[in-house]
Amino acid sequence: MSRIAGPYHIYRRPDTKRYQLTIYPVSGLPVEVCAKWESKSFANLPPELAQYREPRTKAAAQAGAMLLIDYLRRQLSPVPAHSVAETVAANSGKLSGKGFIQYLLDFWRADSPYARKKAKVDGEALSVAYIADNRRNIETYVKTYQGFRGLSLGALTAGAIEDWKLWVIETRGLSGRRVNAVISAMRVPIRYAVRRQELSADPFASVDKVRERLRERGVLTNDEVEALIHAPIKSGRDRLAVLLAALCGMRRGEVRGLRWEDIGDGIIRIQHNWIDLEGDKQPKRGSERIVPIPRVVADALGKLGGSTGFVFPGVGNAPIGAGWFWDAFRRAMSAIGIDEAQIKARHLTYHGLRHAYITLGRMAGISDLEIQALAGHKSWRMMERYSHVPQVIDYSAARDKLERAIATG
């Protein structure tokens, strides 16, 4: 007789694609009880275990088998039997029996306990776009996976997640970066529950990220920046939009949120960041800052001649739409001889103009600390360490260095 390896055996019937279950005496159950569970379908589970009646993955079937054995033991025990929910709560935390997908969807809501905690306790409110992106990832790439349907939080395993990774790459064609974003949308809620001791273990602890093929962002050469400065760009708004990114290091949201009241005395006070669905916010990661205005940018501002309100006004009380900047960027590139095919091949983007600004600043002799402060492009640790830098920058000297770099190409 072959050796029995464990308390149960499960296999999937090829005709129905449903799992069958056999319980062995090594489970600690009487022989007569085990005999009743030879080649039993999971469809015959008691009502208390209804969520495991049609497990879609082997991991879910294994979890259902162990809970069934525990259930049968309690039925035979003189100690009053507890409900499955109580058993799960005792062993794995009170959320163990909650549906995995529903938990994720409930988590990624603007009014969820986690979102309220981030805003009111941590003082780091989640953006509407961030919540929406994570929820969309769950709806599109997690909810549609057959292996997760009907799965409870307590039954989620690292193996199930690894199976999902393979499925989403092979059948949905996701890039490594997108897969990792979806993993994050699942991992954050699970780890939040573990920290709250509502789950006993984190199945993502042994799940690695997918290797990403990082695509280096394209950057204009110094000659191309020089050409951009002198390019015959017909639209004054187009010209100003690209110059604010290339010569002032401003992000798109910061340019959209720019007010005329923020400009004066040869500097721009960057203190607004306009985000769709959210409106006016602080600059990314608290990067409020002051940047000097080179003369060519000052000339472009002067030609628009505004005094109050948005420098790039849109409809109603909002600035111009985000999509406009991509069109303005393409028109500006065309003016210096870079066509659509080259933009795509070189991965040139409007945001990439900030990289040109950083490169130009370094060539001008501005220190890395000053460049980091001027661009607002630093980690929070750097921000803590060098928080005094914006207060000691000589903005006139920085502007003169940029002017010399621009003039010499």
The helix fraction, in percent, is 40-55%
Oligomeric form of this entry?
single chain
Under CATH, the topology of the largest domain can be stated as hpI Integrase, Chain A
Count of individual helical segments: 19
Compute the number of structural domains.
Answer: 3
Task: Describe the largest sheet.
Answer: 3 strands, antiparallel
Sequence of secondary-structure elements:
EEHEHHHHHHHHHHEEEEEHHHHHHHH
Which segments are poorly predicted (pLDDT under 50) over 5 or more consecutive residues?
79-92, 380-393
How many beta-strand runs? Answer: 8
**How far is it from the N-terminal to the C-terminal residue, by CA?**
85 Å
Mean pLDDT over the full residue set: 81
Secondary-structure content class: mainly alpha
Shape: elongated
- Cα-atom radius of gyration: 30 Å
Structural overview:
With 409 residues, the chain is mostly helical. The chain folds into 3 domains: 8-81, no CATH class; 100-206, DNA polymerase, domain 1; 222-408, hpI Integrase, Chain A, CATH 1.10.443. The protein contains 19 helices and 8 strands. It has a 3-stranded antiparallel sheet. The protein has a 3-stranded antiparallel sheet with strand order 4-5-8. Helix 10 (236-248) runs antiparallel to helix 12 (295-304) and helix 10 (236-248) packs across helix 13 (323-335). The chain starts with 7 loop residues before the first strand and ends with a helix.
Helix-strand layout with pairing:
Elements: E1 8-12, E2 19-23, H1 31-36, E3 40-41, H2 58-76, H3 84-92, H4 100-107, H5 113-120, H6 128-142, H7 158-172, H8 176-195, H9 222-230, H10 236-248, H11 252-257, E4 263-264, E5 267-270, E6 273-275, E7 279-281, E8 289-292, H12 295-304, H13 323-335, H14 340-345, H15 352-363, H16 368-375, H17 380-385, H18 389-392, H19 395-408
Antiparallel strand pairs: 1-2, 2-3, 4-5, 5-8, 6-7
